[in-house]
Design brief:
The complex is a heterodimer of chains A (about 140) and B (about 500). Chain A is about 75% helix and about 0% strand. With about 140 residues, chain A is an all-alpha fold. Chain B is mainly α and about 500 residues long. The chains are: A mainly alpha (about 140), B mainly alpha (about 500).
Chain lengths: ~140, ~500
């Protein structure tokens, strides 16, 4: 692993750092909104991976001239990963929206968006149910 | 386009592979626009019947080993998106659309009792989107397209699970956790696809298969396989990644639980099959080791640990949810054996478990409707108060255990013989031993329903709208247990198609 290798793969290093940061935030934070932020970081890292691999060194924007007289010597970057990521971004936006909508509903029902408080509340419900069942026997 | 159409005039029949997905996709916004529950239900039901008819027509076309390749928008693969139907996915398409066609008539009365009236039209919208996503995942032959449809089905599933909040507010947190886990899974999956694209420069599955065959020792390809297995494992609740499943199944509305338990994990299993045997091939050393030494042990752990967890549950929906995780273990076991018979066992169990769990969760939904309870001690004496529902639970339970004469027996038989064929008799013993655990948890339900005295409440039998779909599936459990040739033949064909080198060999 020499200097060339490390610098040459800069996009991958950034991808790994961003992805792990996102995943860590999802796992380590108790606040539901922060978890969604982490999830977004995690997804964005993947977008970056796709977009950066579409780059061809020395390549220009993949737009053909209007008269369609294509110069064979021009190198174009690969547009396909970008198109894929447009779809993935839409999926990401939908996920974020749905996640935040769920958080609004959770806040209405539980009066908190802290995971630990929600767990306490759910444990209390479960205990009540168990006590109720024992009464039945 | 007009000139091209004249050259290769396409009839409606040629468009069946895409209509399968387009019909529910277009029907779902219609449900929202009409916004009236009755009308939305009629549209959804009509769409699901159309899907069922299409999928049966597709299966009939490909059942003798044929392949339909449909080019979306007339773009040739590998540039355009290809829908590729062979026996394996035609079989899964039939399962998904048949369950959808049975769940919709059931849902009408079931959700009336469980969901607020203003959400009914939106419920059908989400359900149709979910059906569209699941059918899309199954029909497509494009790796990235799988991700898109997977997310369409997952996002609508999260919303459907959250609708259970009218009965129990814990449905919201269950849906939230499912969203987090599901999105992480899907993102892992898409990283895997990205690595494959980086290594091969294509997304078409048949094209991928050809190119991967030359790249066996490529580290990017290996990483891609690892990411895909973990990502899809999250969606199909492979043993240590199953944490989202029990709560989601327990708190979702009954109709949703029945639909999800019967279809969504099954479609995820199909994706794993497709990637393991068509895109990658078992000749790929890294894959064979992963399946044998990672997937197989986890499958066996699922069979035992999830069954043991099921025995100790006090809620019938949660008990069945843990049993689902155990049954997913059986399907993974078949895949993990990496033989044609094992694969056939996996595919048969996929079908048999879909009808068994569908019947059981539908019957539980009928109980929820009549009593409002899912706590097991409160089911005392229900076998006499609701004789038909009770009998459906017993039939489903027997199939879950694998009693001869029920569908569950056939798939376990094939799995056991697959293990013996490989000479792995301890695995065969483990399959039988874990079935004994199923006896324990099924007996736990039967005992309380039939042998405990009923409390002094007057609970009546469930309405016919719930009983008919439930019994449709329960009868299927017996039918496919007695006349097993149908499923065994289709599954063996599918397994041979997958195992014979998949796309690359054709």
């Amino acid at each position: 692993m020499d200097f060339e290798f490390i610098v040459g793969h800069l996009n991958y290093w950034l991808f790994i750092v961003l992805m792990m940061t996102g995943l860590y935030v999802v796992v380590a934070r108790g606040n539901l909104v922060k978890k969604i932020v982490g999830l977004n970081l995690f997804q964005t890292a993947v977008f970056m991976l796709y977009i950066s691999v579409g780059k061809v060194s020395g390549g220009t924007a993949p737009i053909f001239p209007a008269d369609m007289k294509i110069d064979e010597s021009v190198v174009y970057s690969n547009p396909l990963p970008h198109v894929l990521i447009l779809t993935a971004i839409v999926v990401g936006v939908a996920t974020t929206a749905l996640g935040l909508a769920l958080i609004v509903r959770i806040r209405e029902e539980y009066d908190t968006i802290e995971e630990s408080h929600i767990l306490t509340a759910e444990l209390a419900i479960a205990r009540r149910e168990l006590a109720d069942m024992d009464g039945e026997r | 386009m007009a000139g091209e159409a004249a050259q290769t005039a396409k009839t409606l029949v040629d468009h069946l592979p895409v209509l399968q997905v387009v019909v529910p996709m277009l029907a779902s916004p219609l449900c929202m626009l009409f916004a009236r529950a009755g009308l939305a239900w009629a549209i959804a039901f009509a769409a699901s019947l159309a899907c069922l008819a299409i999928s049966i027509a597709l299966l009939a076309t490909v059942v003798d080993g044929g392949v339909i390749s449909y080019h979306l928008g007339g773009w040739e693969p590998p540039w355009g998106i290809e829908y590729r139907i062979d026996t394996a996915n035609a079989f899964v398409l039939v399962i998904v659309s048949a369950i959808a066609a049975l769940v919709l008539p059931y849902a009408r009365q079931s959700i009336a009792a469980e969901i607020e009236a203003k959400h009914h039209a939106l419920f059908y919208t989400c359900l149709l989107l979910c059906i569209c996503g699941l059918l899309g995942v199954t029909a497509t032959g494009d790796a990235f397209n799988v991700f898109v449809f997977l997310e369409i089905s997952s996002l609508s599933t999260y919303a459907l699970v959250a609708l259970g909040a009218a009965r129990d507010k814990r449905a919201l947190t269950a849906a939230y956790n499912y969203l987090i886990m599901g999105t992480i899974g899907a993102t892992f999956f898409v990283i895997g696809i990205g690595f494959l694209y980086m290594a091969t420069g294509t997304l078409n599955m048949a094209d991928l298969a050809e190119r991967i065959a030359q790249l066996e020792s490529n580290r990017t390809v290996r990483a891609a396989f690892a990411f895909i297995v973990v990502g899809i494992g999250m969606k199909l609740a492979i043993y240590p990644l199953h944490m989202w499943l029990p709560n989601a199944y327990t708190f979702a509305p009954s109709a949703v639980t029945a639909f999800l338990a019967a279809t969504s994990t099954k479609v995820a299993i199909y994706v794993l099959l497709r990637f393991s045997f068509s895109v990658f091939s078992p000749g790929f050393e890294f894959e064979r080791f992963t399946l044998l030494y990672v997937v197989l042990p986890f499958a066996v752990m699922a069979m035992f640990l999830a069954s043991i967890a099921a025995v100790f549950q006090q809620d019938i929906k949660r008990l069945l949810a843990y049993s689902s995780i155990a049954q997913i273990g059986y399907m993974l076991l078949g895949i993990g054996l990496v033989t044609a018979t094992g694969l056939a066992g996996s595919i048969i169990h996929l079908f048999n478990h879909a009808i068994t769990k569908g019947a059981l969760f539908m019957a539980v939904g009928a109980i929820v409707m009549q009593t409002g309870h899912t706590a097991i001690p409160k089911l005392a004496g229900l076998g006499r108060a609701m004789p038909l529902t009770g009998a459906a639970i017993v039939t489903g339970g027997l199939s879950l255990i694998g009693i001869p004469g029920t569908a569950g027996f056939i798939s376990k038989w094939v799995l056991v013989s697959a293990a013996l064929e490989k000479g792995w008799w301890p695995v065969a013993l483990l399959i039988v031993a874990s079935s004994l655990l199923a006896v324990v948890y099924v007996w736990k339900i039967v005992e309380i329903m039939y042998l405990k005295p009923a409390p002094q409440t007057s609970v009546g039998e469930a309405p016919l709208g719930l009983l008919l779909p439930t019994w449709g599936l329960a009868a299927a459990c017996v039918f496919f247990g007695l006349w097993a040739d149908l499923t065994i033949d289709a599954a063996t064909d599918a397994a041979n198609g997958l195992f014979g080198g998949g796309f690359a060999a054709r």
